[in-house]
């Protein structure tokens, strides 16, 4: 007897050839594995599906996202045609622009380290094409982008107008003419696919309202495709702020920095194609803003993906190893050593892993690209996707992960194959080893340690960090793997307990439970696959729901639910038109007009006026000057800033209802006082009106009004929520309140600033559309409908993808188990068991494994989801005082309970009514 553990065959292999013999053994194993796969094509397809399905989904989803997301390099022609650069003013002259290499992000800066600004010759207040061309050389061609309203009867449709001259080759790629001819005058336009989808006529004459009180008629002379989904294409019109630079030499990074000093933001073709020359500048890199998602989340998602791929392949090789017990025993009886038996199982893993990963990654990428093209074709209002974006590096990494996962999944079956009991297997006896109670205890300890590591990594050190340190990354990966592995280590003992406690279950469930407890290798592998999938789903949905709840907590409503406000910028004529539109669309609405008094520059019909509100200590002209400049002195300080909203004038009854004023505040308004927020110390306010005449400020009138401080700290139609930081609409606020009677005493007059609209039952969607289509360009309606929650389709999509993985894992494992248990099925049939019993056993088998794995997955996912909820709360609401952890139980239970039960029903239906005959082995 050889006590060294080396078989006779292994010893012969070592003596006969060394490395050559080892390679030869692998060659033989691969040939045997390939022959076995050809003989059992159906089982091979099921195994490949388990390994490749997550790869297919990841490759398809990633390719779709990368293709739809057009980066700066892919979008060069659609933004700058065939020019060398796209130049646009980001600030007034005298400020230096700091930008990213691709020009997608930027800002203005000053202070140490920032270059001094440069000025165009002559220091023009509004530099034009000639000024830009003077500092760049070459030729600059204008690009305009305007927002207009197209009048169709009494309706108006908003449209974006791209202003280019398509007859010039410089604009090639920015749009494509599909019919008709390019516009040759400002009275001609093209209608794009996006414009037609928005309801614009594709022929005839259109009336365009530019929002400044000017309308013009244009003729549609053709159709066009606009990659950036503009609605109309016309010749450049008005003063351009963006130009295409045409010249023979490229714009390099040094010149980009030079042009930044003129206040220009530069998208350079040369720098976009060769970003390395800009990467050396830390100022540019610092402006490449990330997605805001903490790096710890990406690490956890990547680790979860690897675990899912590895564990999904587990059931395939576990069932495959069990099915090949007899073949392995025959190989062993013919002299095959332990190494050769392991090689045989590993060879199957290599073949299936390589083939399925290669085929399904490529198939997923092609399907994702085709889906992106289809979406771009069928959704014309969306910017066109870029060219098919295949990330080969990510594909190779995904392929390597899949192959490694297949080998990892095959490791335990390979080890078990090398320990095959020759006599027992050839006699058809399979004995399962007893599970030592120490293993589940060790698993619980490992899982607990992994959970603590994951939670600590998110809650304490990695919550706010966009970049995760290498040490933290390694610790987080270790914690995630320990959480999964430790939980899975408890599965064998729990499965044996499940079989032991099944005596009170119905017959079919009792047989299935005992079979699961006996065939633990296959059951544990399937449990691991379902555990990983449900855990990833639970973590993802908890993170999404927690982010949603944190954003909802941060949302500050602008108005009471269902009410609306029309904001006006067009003077008295615009206010009269808006009132008429609102009353026509909602005849029974309650309408309140809010007037602004003493607001500088708010009423376009009274431009040039200046107002000031001071408590004293300065002359009236000095007050106007300081108000115009936005400054103050120690003796002359503003009591209210009138440069923006001005004082809000309404009747005392209206003000009381809108701002929830006390009786004391209402009495103050009725007495003609100015009502200021709580904390105001002055007893009177002097309001001065005038205008600027050159460098002089001319006073046209002034009045002194008494002041009273309210008990409220702010006058807003909606009380501010604690920790809220975001508002998505036009709120109604005022720095101070006066009655309409007192407003008549203030020089300069007043104008309608906004119109409050309250309808019985709230403003309907149809009424909102009717109003928006008929308002002038410089007026807009906002209706408060609460926090814009994420659509249910996101939860359905995520749940559908992961539910499909759970369903495939359960059904495939059940199918392989049924194939393995054919002899047991024949025994049951010989004892008179009806087909219905066999179907119920198959369904119960699938349900038990699916529900058991889903339960463990929920436990792991709840721990990881709790950890993830901390950083997503901070990202969604920086003002949050504590983490928000939301658990979408309905979606989770549908997948964790509904999908296993569906798999059980499908497994029962797929079970044959007649038992197939077993061919005698020769």
UniProtKB/TrEMBL annotation:
Residues 304-421 form the ABC3 transporter permease C-terminal domain. GO terms for molecular function: transmembrane transporter activity. Keywords: Cell membrane, Membrane, Transmembrane, Transmembrane helix. InterPro entries: ABC3_permease_C (IPR003838), Macrolide_Exporter_MacB (IPR050250). One of its GO terms (cellular component) is plasma membrane. It is a multi-pass membrane protein. It comes from the Bacteria. The chain crosses the membrane at residues 44-66, 297-318, 344-372, 392-416, 437-459, 471-495, 523-545, 793-812, 846-869, 889-910. It is found in: Cell membrane. Belongs to the ABC-4 integral membrane protein family. This is Putative ABC transport system permease protein. It comes from Flexivirga oryzae.
């Amino acid at each position: 007897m050889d006590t060294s553990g080396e078989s006779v065959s292994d010893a012969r292999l070592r003596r006969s050839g060394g490395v050559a013999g080892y390679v030869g053994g692998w060659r033989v194993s691969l040939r045997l594995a390939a022959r076995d796969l050809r003989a059992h094509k159906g089982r091979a397809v099921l195994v490949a599906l388990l390994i490749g399905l997550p790869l297919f989904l990841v490759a398809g989803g990633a390719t779709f996202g990368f293709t739809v997301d057009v980066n700066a390099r892919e979008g060069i022609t659609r933004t700058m045609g065939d020019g060398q650069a796209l130049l646009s003013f980001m600030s007034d002259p005298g400020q230096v622009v700091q930008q990213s290499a691709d020009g997608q992000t930027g800002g203005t800066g000053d202070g140490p380290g920032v270059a001094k600004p440069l000025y165009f010759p002559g220091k023009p207040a509004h530099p034009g094409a000639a000024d830009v061309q003077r500092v760049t050389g070459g030729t600059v061609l204008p690009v305009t982008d305007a927002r207009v309203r197209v009048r169709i009867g009494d309706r108006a449709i908003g449209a974006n107008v791209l202003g280019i001259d398509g007859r010039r080759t410089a604009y090639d790629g920015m749009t494509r003419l599909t019919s008709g001819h390019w516009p040759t005058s400002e009275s001609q336009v093209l209608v794009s696919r996006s414009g037609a989808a928005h309801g614009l006529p594709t022929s005839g004459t259109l009336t365009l309202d530019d929002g400044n009180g000017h309308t013009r008629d244009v003729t549609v002379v053709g159709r066009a495709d606009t990659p950036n989904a503009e609605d109309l294409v016309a010749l450049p019109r008005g003063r351009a702020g963006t130009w295409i630079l045409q010249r023979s030499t490229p714009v390099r990074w040094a010149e980009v920095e030079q042009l930044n000093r003129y206040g220009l933001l530069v998208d350079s073709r040369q720098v976009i194609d060769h970003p390395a020359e800009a990467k050396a500048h830390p100022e540019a890199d610092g402006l490449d803003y990330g997605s805001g998602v903490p790096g710890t989340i990406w690490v956890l998602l990547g680790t979860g993906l690897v675990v899912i791929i590895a564990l999904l392949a587990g059931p395939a090789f576990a069932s495959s190893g069990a099915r090949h017990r007899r073949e392995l025993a025959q190989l062993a009886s013919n002299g095959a050593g332990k190494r050769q038996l392991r090689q045989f199982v590993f060879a199957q893993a290599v073949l299936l892993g390589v083939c399925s990963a290669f085929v399904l990654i490529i198939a997923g990428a092609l399907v994702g690209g085709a889906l992106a093209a289809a979406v771009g074709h069928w959704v014309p209002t969306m910017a066109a996707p870029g060219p098919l974006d295949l990330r080969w590096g990510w594909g190779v990494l995904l392929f390597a992960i899949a192959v490694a996962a297949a080998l990892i999944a095959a490791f335990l079956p390979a080890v078990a194959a090398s320990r095959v009991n020759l006599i027992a297997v050839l006699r058809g006896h399979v004995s399962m080893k007893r599970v030592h109670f120490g293993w589940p205890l060790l698993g619980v300890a490992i899982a607990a340690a992994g959970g603590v590591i994951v939670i600590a990594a998110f809650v304490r050190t990695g919550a706010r960090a966009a970049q995760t340190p290498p040490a933290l990354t390694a610790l987080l990966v270790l914690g995630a793997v320990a959480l999964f592995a430790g939980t899975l280590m408890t599965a064998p003992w729990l499965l044996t307990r499940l079989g032991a406690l099944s005596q009170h279950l119905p017959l079919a469930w009792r047989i299935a439970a005992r079979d699961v407890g006996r065939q633990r290798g296959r059951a544990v592998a399937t449990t691991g696959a379902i555990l990983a999938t449900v855990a990833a789903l639970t973590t993802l949905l908890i993170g999404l729901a927690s982010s949603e709840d944190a954003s909802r907590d941060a949302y500050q409503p602008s108005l009471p639910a269902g009410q609306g406000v029309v904001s006006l910028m067009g003077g008295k004529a615009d206010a009269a038109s808006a009132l008429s539109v609102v009353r026509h669309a909602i005849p029974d609405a309650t309408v309140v007009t809010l007037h602004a008094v003493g607001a500088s520059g708010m009423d376009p019909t009274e431009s040039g006026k200046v107002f000031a509100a001071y408590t004293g200590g300065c002359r009236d002209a000095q007050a106007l000057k300081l108000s115009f400049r936005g400054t103050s002195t120690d003796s002359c300080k503003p009591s209210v800033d009138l440069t923006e909203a001005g004082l809000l004038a309404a009747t005392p009854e209206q003000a009381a209802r809108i701002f929830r004023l006390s009786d004391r505040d209402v009495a103050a308004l009725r007495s003609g006082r100015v009502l200021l927020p709580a904390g105001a110390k002055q007893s009177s306010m002097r309001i001065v009106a005038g205008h600027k005449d050159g460098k002089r400020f001319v006073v046209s009138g002034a009045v002194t009004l008494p002041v009273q401080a309210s008990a409220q700290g702010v006058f807003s139609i909606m009380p501010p929520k604690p920790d809220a930081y975001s508002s998505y609409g036009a709120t109604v606020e005022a720095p101070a309140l006066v009655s309409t009677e007192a407003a008549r005493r203030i020089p300069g007059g007043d104008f309608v600033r906004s119109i409050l609209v309250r309808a019985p039952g709230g403003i309907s969607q149809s009424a909102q559309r009717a109003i928006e289509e008929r308002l002038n360009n410089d007026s807009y309606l906002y209706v408060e409908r609460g926090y814009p929650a994420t659509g249910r389709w996101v939860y359905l999509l995520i749940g559908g993808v992961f539910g499909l993985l759970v369903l495939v894992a359960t059904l495939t494992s059940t199918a392989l188990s049924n194939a393995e248990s054919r002899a047991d099925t024949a025994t049951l049939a010989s004892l008179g068991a009806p087909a219905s019993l066999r179907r119920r056993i198959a369904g119960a088998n699938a349900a038990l494994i699916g529900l058991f794995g889903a339960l463990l997955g929920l436990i792991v996912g709840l721990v990881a989801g709790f950890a993830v909820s901390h950083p997503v709360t901070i990202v969604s609401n920086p003002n949050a005082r504590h983490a928000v952890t939301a658990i979408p139980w309905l979606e989770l239970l549908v997948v964790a309970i509904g999908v296993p039960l569906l798999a059980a029903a499908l497994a029962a239906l797929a079970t044959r009514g007649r038992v197939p005959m077993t061919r005698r082995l020769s």
